[in-house]
Design goal:
By secondary structure, this protein is an alpha+beta fold. Strand 7 and strand 8 form a beta hairpin. The chain has one domain: Aminopeptidase (3-Layer(aba) Sandwich), CATH 3.40.630.30. Strands 1-2-3-4-5-6-8-7 form an 8-stranded mixed sheet, with helices on both faces. The structure holds coenzyme A.
Length: about 180
Amino acid sequence: MKFEPKTIILKDGRSCTLRPTHPDDAAEMIAYMKQIAEETRFTLRTPEEVTYTLEQEREILGHLLEDNGSVMMLAEVDGQVAGNCSISGMGYKSRVLHRCSLAIALKKDFWNLGIGFAMITYLTELARQIGFEQIELDVVSDNERGIKLYEKCGFVETGKRLRAMKYNDGTYADETIMSKLLK
Ligand SMILES: CC(C)(COP(=O)(O)OP(=O)(O)OC[C@H]1O[C@@H](n2cnc3c(N)ncnc32)[C@H](O)[C@@H]1OP(=O)(O)O)[C@@H](O)C(=O)NCCC(=O)NCCS
């Protein structure tokens, strides 16, 4: 959905704009997805699994911009994509219309600057406006920075998903399921 851009000041003094993604961001978004897939094992895709073409990505971003039930937020610093945070509904069945899920990832150069906290704070406000009653997320259980951020934003642990991820080297990671009630 469309929303008002917001400018925040980061812990290192730079300014950062939080704004909706636009189809024109497609090339940068593909590059960003590849980069974060290389930099962290805490997200779902491997670099080889980032296979969107420019046209496909443009189309996806266009749909997201027009979809009033989801938010795709970009953090921009010095004219480049620093990260992305999104919420999307759990589906269109009446019994789950009150729930949405959150996903977030930043390029490594932009970790620990307060962008995650600012994005989730703004997304929480937008989730309320849409009418969602709770935000849910899954986080790899040893992602200490992520869990610290989510707790700071008011999320609490509601369960565990054992062996949720399996890596190429054959090891597994559990996930912690977290939730934040909005009313
Ligand atoms: C997890 C992530 C989204 C956090 O965003 P961020 O902008 O770095 O987070 P913030 O700077 O707003 O806050 C991070 C907090 O964690 C703290 N922190 C940093 N490293 C930490 C660690 N190893 N253990 C515990 N807390 C840590 C910071 O001090 C900060 O808390 P503070 O503001 O109270 O000082 C970001 O680091 C990221 O994209 N990581 C890789 C991808 C990922 O893990 N995505 C989430 C998948 S569920």
